[in-house]
Amino acid sequence: MSVSQTPDVTTLIDKVSDQIVARRLSTAAIFLLESGKPLTTVGSQFLIFLDPILKIFLTVPDYQLFIELLEDRHKVEELICAIERKEDEQ
Question: 10-28: buried (b, 16+ CB within 10 Å) or exposed (e) per residue?
């Protein structure tokens, strides 16, 4: 399943990247996202493990959208770029 470019996806990428940078987790998040890129098709299964951590940052509807976002390699790259850009702005 591929996530289309919608305002919801863009908003979610901004929201997640803001939270990651604010909590100073940029390096860990980028490492995790880059490491998981080859496994994007099983990314939703990995989210079962990360469920308690990610629900700190996301509401339930956002969480479902986030799962779908991680299944699309291009959206993962957009999230990484957003984190890097916001980290550089600080």
Answer: eebbebbbebbbeeebbee
Q: Distance between CA atoms of 23 and 9, rounded to whole angstroms? A: 21
Q: For 11-36, how does the pLDDT look when each residue is reduced to its tens digit (9 = 90+)?
A: 999 999 999 999 999 999 999 989 87
Q: Take residue 33 and report the two structure tokens written for it.
A: 């996202």
pLDDT tens-place string over residues 60-81: 777 778 778 888 889 999 999 9
> Which phi-psi region, left, alpha or beta, contains residue 72 (left: φ > 0; alpha: ψ -120 to 50)?
beta
Cα 70 to Cα 9: distance, rounded to the nearest angstrom: 11
- pTM listed for this prediction: 0.76
Largest CA distance in the chain: 34
Q: Which residues contact 24 (CB under 8 A, 6 or more apart)?
A: none
Residue 7: burial class (beta carbons within 10 Å; 0-12, 13-18, 19+) = exposed
